[in-house]
Design brief:
Arc Repressor Mutant, subunit A, two-stranded antiparallel ribbon, 2 strands, 6 helices, mainly alpha, elongated, 11% strand
């Protein structure tokens, strides 16, 4: 990943890069998300783990990161004789896109404040020089 914003703007970026950019998700998280998106029905952690060829605990942690980021939903399925299990499905793309837009707007507002602080500080000459030793 590029170090500066100007480097990021010069690079080609795909929409899947937003998963990493906005939420710091890993390659495995992107793979798990893609598996869930392509599935015809919600999947269990075991099914996702098998699809990405990873241990169940590894797939579970990935799914939890996706849930925390709002990309995946969890549903409970009840057995007729009692008991239950969980399945996971992707969040609607419009919901995820709205959330990313909100995050981007919040980030933009924060950067605007920092730029204004920079301008105010350096126009007034409030810059303190490092103490010489």
């Amino acid at each position: 990943m590029p170090d500066s914003m100007s480097e990021q703007l010069r690079q080609d970026m795909e929409c899947e890069g937003l998963l990493e950019c906005f939420h710091g998700l890993k390659d495995l998280d992107k793979q798990c998300f893609q598996i869930l998106v392509n599935a015809e029905e919600p999947l269990t952690v075991d099914e996702v783990a098998e699809a990405v060829d990873r241990e169940r605990s590894t797939a579970y942690r990935s799914i939890q990161r996706l849930r925390n980021a709002g990309f995946v939903q969890k549903e409970q399925v009840n057995y007729d004789n009692g008991g239950y299990y969980h399945v996971y499905l992707p969040t609607a793309p419009s919901v995820v896109a709205d959330d990313m837009q909100r995050l981007l707007n919040d980030w933009y507002a924060k950067m605007g404040q920092l730029i204004q602080q920079f301008e105010d500080k350096y126009e007034r000459g409030d810059v303190t020089s490092p103490v010489e030793g």
